[in-house]
Amino acid sequence: MSIEQADATGKAAESLPQLNRTVHASAKPPVRIVHLGLGAFHRSHQAWYTSQASDAADWGIAAFTGRRPDAALALAEQDGLFTLVERADSGDSFSVVGSIVEAVDGADVQRLAELVSAPATAMVTLTVTEAAYRLGADGQLDTTASDVASDLALLASGSGNPSTPLGRLVFALAARRAAGAGPLAVVCCDNLANNGTVARNAVAGLAQAWNAELAAWVEENVSFVSTSVDRITPRTTEADIAAVEAACGYRDNSPVVAEPFTNWVLSGDFPAGRPRWEDAGAVFVDHIEPYENRKLWLLNGAHSLLAYAGQLRGHTTVAQALADPQCLNAVESFWDEAEANLAGTAAGGADLQIPAYRAALLARFSNARIAHHLAQIAMDGSTKLRMRAVPVLQAERAQGRSGAAAALMIAAWIDFSAAADTFHDPLATEVAAANQLEGTERVRAVLALVDPAVAADDAVVELVSGLLGTFAAGS
Ligand code: CS2
Q1: Roughly how many angstroms between the first and final C-alpha of the chain, as a whole number?
Q2: How far apart are CA 403 and CA 397, in angstroms?
Q3: What is the Cα–Cα distance from 390 to 385, expressed in whole angstroms?
Q4: Are 19 and 81 in contact (CB under 8 A)?
Q5: For site-directed labelling of 12, which of 96, 176, 377, 473 has its Cα 20 to 30 A away?
Q6: Which of 236, 257, 284 is the last residue of a domain?
Q7: How confident is the model at residue 141 (pLDDT cuts 50, 70, 90)?
Q8: Comparing C-alpha atoms, which of 309, 300, 296 is closest to residue 467?
Q9: Is 295 in the pocket of ligand 1 (CB under 6 A)?
Q10: What residue ranges in 193-342 does DSSP mark as E strands?
Q11: Domain final residue, candidates 234, 257, 284
């Protein structure tokens, strides 16, 4: 390995110790977890939990990137080691995480198949983004999406490597089946309601469309674990890299910065075993839905609302947007609507402690030392709003109330979709086309891309139309 260490003038700073396993006396655990979606969040969350388990020495992670190899290349140069910066209001603390033992370009599908088909591999964890599951507004796998269709064609012809994360996973599962390596768990760590079921639908949908015997094997041998994951992890900046060098005395090209708070709730079976993540505070439950909804509605819902309202009002980060009373009021109103419906889902006996959760969120969002950019959260809104706004809107309306605060999140997204310089969304083209229409027809067309049932409701179309333009800079 060679980490080029340079001071501010670009000169090699040889006195700095290198970030590698020899210097950090960290032995490599064997690969037993394969991860798809090597990014900052995986490293601050699942990799950290794995490194904290009392049996961490038995559990190494081989992590694959998504579209680009960069994160794997940077991490491979450091033997997979990286610094976790826990950034509190009161200051930073630094630790080196050693659970990732192999960092691989996601395009290396052969290596993925090799590792997934190894008998020692007990699970595949996923952070591939909400949009990557390619579920349509009806919740089913969209086999007409161009990348899904092209992966299916490649799989059928056996003539090339799949390019979507789920296509790659299905390819690798076929290799495990062929190797007779036995059952394993797929652990979805993306912010989706019922994320284990979503992952199951996506994997089973692809497998079924490719090879019915594989689909039957998946059904018998793959356990899909649902999880609710939480740790605010903004993108790493050059300033973060410099802060690690200044505080730790070594150059780390891939540190990750996160808030001190972290949470992981899991539900499901691990037929080939798992690390003792509970040693690091992970919680295993039978019924995950109340926890998922609490997190998706209160944390992620508020995030999306702030992302659109905040940017329309000229803010850049979560902390800035929350300091704006108009944005804060919108969040509080949305939380009131969400809370009224969370009580119902908690009937299973879970004490969700909503007031304390809300108070903690205000503190977490106000941590001004975490520069969590609204632009990062604003991405892929058509998929995110299905989980964050629509269920609350529908639950409110089912109770005979308007759901105006949830509708305001959707209205802010529609305003943002027309105003933003960069609008990153799997349906960006369709949204742009719908935005060419006028008045309520425009609102109906954009809404239909999020949820056809909501778009078919005239009263909701009216409600959302009347809320357009609520957030204007300086108003
Ligand atoms: C955010 C999440 O980007 C987003 O959509 O809402 O990444 C959020 O920061 C995490 O879920 C926090 O656990």
Answers
A1: 54
A2: 6
A3: 6
A4: yes
A5: 96
A6: 284
A7: confident
A8: 309
A9: no
A10: 222-230, 256-258, 263-267, 283-284
A11: 284
Half-sphere exposure of 316 (CA within 13 A, CB side): 4
Same domain, 340 and 261: no
Contact between residue 392 and residue 344 where contact means Cβ atoms under 8 Å apart: no
Nearest CA to ligand 1 atom 1: 377
Is 231 near ligand 1, meaning CB less than 6 Å away? yes
* Pocket probe mutation, ligand 1, options 262, 297, 377, max atoms within 8 Å of Cβ: 377
DSSP per residue over 55-123, as a string? TGGG-EEEEE-SS-SHHHHHHHTTTT-EEEEEEETTEEEEEEE--EEEEE-TT-HHHHHHHHTSTT--E
Least confident segment among 4-8, 164-168, 291-295 = 4-8
Average pLDDT, the chain: 93
Contact in structure between 36 and 109 (CB atoms under 8 Å): no
Mutate to test the pocket of ligand 1, among 49, 195, 229, 303 (most ligand atoms within 8 A of CB): 303
The stretch 428-435 carries a mean pLDDT of: 98
In short, whether 385's Cβ falls inside 6 Å of ligand 1 is no
Does 187 share its domain with 307?
no
Q: Taking the model in full, what pTM does it have?
A: 0.92
Confidence label for 6 from pLDDT (cuts 50, 70 and 90): very low
Instruction: Give the helix/strand (H/E) hosting 184.
Output: strand 184-188
In contact, 414 and 464? CB cutoff 8 Å: yes
230 lines ligand 1 (CB under 6 A): yes
Considering the domain architecture, whether residues 229 and 259 belong to the same structural domain is answered as: yes
**C-alpha of residue 232 to centroid of ligand 1, in Å:** 6
For 80: left if phi > 0, alpha if psi spans -120 to 50, otherwise beta; the answer is left
Ligand 1 neighbour 191 (Cβ under 6 A): yes
Please give the Cα distance from 461 to 465 (Å, whole number). Answer: 6
Whether 304 and 384 have beta carbons less than 8 Å apart is answered as yes
Alpha helices in 90-237 (DSSP H): 109-116, 146-157, 165-179, 195-210, 212-221
CA of 300 to the centre of ligand 1 (A): 6
What distance in angstroms lies between residue 377's CA and the mean position of ligand 1's atoms? Answer: 7
Does 362 share its domain with 240?
Answer: no
Structure tokens at 243: 């802060």
Question: How far is residue 9's CA from residue 289's CA, in Å, rounded to a whole number?
Answer: 53
- Name 185's bridge partners: 123, 223
Q: Is residue 473 part of a domain?
A: no
Domain hosting 348: range is 289-467
Residue 21's pLDDT is: 84
Q: How far apart are CA 59 and CA 30, in angstroms?
A: 6
